[in-house]
Design brief:
Number of helices: 12
CATH architecture of the largest domain: 2-Layer Sandwich
Oligomer: single chain
Radius of gyration: 27 Å
Shape: elongated
CATH class of the largest domain: Alpha Beta
Structural class: alpha+beta
Helix content: 40-55%
CATH topology of the largest domain: BirA Bifunctional Protein, domain 2
Mean pLDDT: 94
Order of helices and strands: HHHHEHEHEHEEHEHEEEHEEEHEEEHEE
Low-confidence stretches: none
Distance between the termini: 57 Å
Number of domains: 2
Strand order of the largest sheet: 1-10-11-12-15-9-8-4
Largest sheet: 8 strands, mixed
CATH superfamily of the largest domain: Bira Bifunctional Protein, Domain 2
Length: 429
Amino acid sequence: MIDPALVRDHLDEVEAKLAERATNLQVELAAVKELDAKRLAIIPALENARRLRKELGANIARAKKTGESSDDLLKQGQIFSDQVKQQEAALDAVEQDRRKLLLRLPNLPHSSVPRGDDEKANQEVSRWGKLPSFDFTPKAHWDLGPDLGVLDFERASKMSGARFAVLVGAGAKLNRALINFMLALHTKEHGYTEIAPPFLVNDQALVGTGNLPKFEADLFKMAGDSNLYLVPTAEVPLANLHREEIIDGRRLPLSYVAYTPCFRREAGSYGKDVRGLIRQHQFEKVELFKFTTPEQSYNEHEKLTRHAEIVLEKLGLPYRRVILSAGDMGFAAAKTYDLEVWLPGQDTYREISSCSNTEAFQSRRADIKFRPDGTGKAELAHTLNGSGLAVGRTLIAVLENGQQRDGSVVVPEALRPFMDNQEVIEPPR
């Protein structure tokens, strides 16, 4: 959530920064301005009623001390007490309405984020790896996988519908190997603490990360009167690890990694990336997450992004780093790098990780603070997240980049210890 004081005192600046996101928020901002005016109108009346009640209380005390009748004073005091309650209720209603509106406003873009309405304004930062060359026409994974016997979309469709897949044999083994490889890399080499979180979270956890209230249509909610949802990403449980806590600042940064399945309705994306594993209702990720001080956060953002890049480099997968424009960033992000892996079967780069600094946006919603030296005034922590990596998309990249003329796929050397030293996935004979 954007700092309410910033919205109240510098609304024009906030409006200008939000305009960089190419999102029309005039209605919401006008409503916030109207509620601020109501708040300013209520506060003087409330403070006056409280002052009069306090003065009257002193008069009642003096009357009782001197033995004078205080009946009339008590009646008048009740009137002031009722006025205070009414004004407090009115102020609370305004504050609640204002918070609901603020929860629907996206984060403000960092000053280093390119301006632009959509992905066309994204800027390439760097590239790594030599693009593979083939003496045959490389297949896309939606053909290569079934031909290898490792992907089955038809049977998945029968049991679950569109946007699901079954991994078979070496495909399932490769998927598991990727998860174990990523977790081992991030814990042993990069120093992250592994977390095994719940795969169901409550609505307040999703409010904390910015998924609710605005993006409820993208979530799978449990049936009945439950307020539990399937996680859309491990970012949600990781962000809520320290919800409503004050962290000892001397422990920061805190770095966590978690594997989870992820569940998304992909509302509004129908007709987009419909083939293969690119956009599924159920997929898997290894997620990186950090809690930092404001001073650390942008340096840690670079580190987190680099840790995701190293996964691709160890697997020998060509990729590029892109900084997203303000209009293409996610709701909670102040700055985002996308890592895009090369997919020769599709002759394009595809996003495989988004690494974002949300600054204090999530911690303000989830009430996550720290004390810089373990003592003193508590401040809002900064939170960062990134895929390290999306497992299904990494599997796609391994298949497409490692394919051979005979239909086999070479397993990257870094994965072989997690694949029982298997070097090649052979097609069925």
